[in-house]
Design a protein that fits this description.
single chain, mainly alpha, Arc Repressor Mutant, subunit A, 4 helices
């Protein structure tokens, strides 16, 4: 899904995003899916769906390392979007 404007998160996605931010602030660690599920009283599958959506919408960036995730600001999203376009052009 490519767009020039960042798609707004749903209410549920926004709630997950805010919870991730709060848990990082309080624990200095990215929460696991189970910790998020327990905090929000939902299933791990629901958390996975929302995190996947937030990544595709540009609100989260995930690394291959365990518990490594960044919450992206609008400016960071713009930079990543333009960086992805340059990388794609290199492959053409």
């Amino acid at each position: 899904m490519r767009t020039d404007k960042r798609i707004r998160p749903t209410q549920a996605e926004h709630r997950v995003l805010k919870t991730i931010d709060a848990l990082i602030d309080s624990n200095d660690l990215v929460p696991t899916h189970q910790e998020l599920a327990d905090t929000l009283s939902v299933s791990r599958a629901t958390i996975t769906i929302h995190i996947t959506a937030l990544i595709s919408k540009g609100y989260l960036r995930r690394s291959r390392r365990w518990r490594d995730m960044d919450i992206l600001t609008e400016a960071e999203w713009e930079m990543a979007k333009h960086s992805d376009r340059r990388s794609a052009k290199e492959w053409d």
